[in-house]
Structure formats: C-alpha cells, structure tokens
Amino acid sequence: MYIRGDHAELVVGGRLDVRSAADARTVLHAAVDDGVGDLLLDLSELDSWDATGLGVIMGAHRRAGRCGRRLVLRDVPPQMQRLLVATRLHRILAIEGGIGVDTLPRV
Which InterPro entries match (predicted)? Predict the structure, then answer.
C-alpha cells in the first residue's frame, strides 16, 4: 500500500488491508489534521481493501467531520463501489460523481 499527496489530495494505491491499516491511518489522520476544506482521496490506484481498510476510511471520514472537513472519495474502483453499496456506506461517504447503483455489475 502507498499513499502520496498532501493535506488536500491523496492518492491511495495497492492493498488497503489489515497489514497496511496502521500506516494508512497515520497518514490519513495527519492529512486531516494539517489541512482545511475537503480532503480528496483518489482511489483509482487501489487494488483492494478489506473490512479493516474500510474501517480506516470510515475513521478518517469521522475525524474529518470533527475537524470541520469533508472526506471525498474519487475514482472508486467498481468492486469497491459494490462493497460500499452492499454496506450502504455510499449513503454516508461523499463520493465524487456518486455511484451509479443501477450500472454496477451484479455479483
């Protein structure tokens, strides 16, 4: 897993899972704490995430809200869009362009 960017926009790539969760949490929380306005998380290079990785995203979302910021997801890969819809988190998280629920392939 890697994260590059600054306190306004981050690109997350690789696997966001139990092995990378602690490092990802540290980077995301620092970005939230050090900036103002929306924090854009570009997920176009993310290969996969598990429940722990999704928990890291939700933790960053809650922290951003407490800091008066908003976490915005961009370019969420289709398989991760399905997970967000299945867990109904697409209704809570800000997703640039939204998710076309009707256009997602069925599993």
Answer: Anti-sigma_ant, MlaB-like_STAS, STAS_dom, STAS_dom_sf
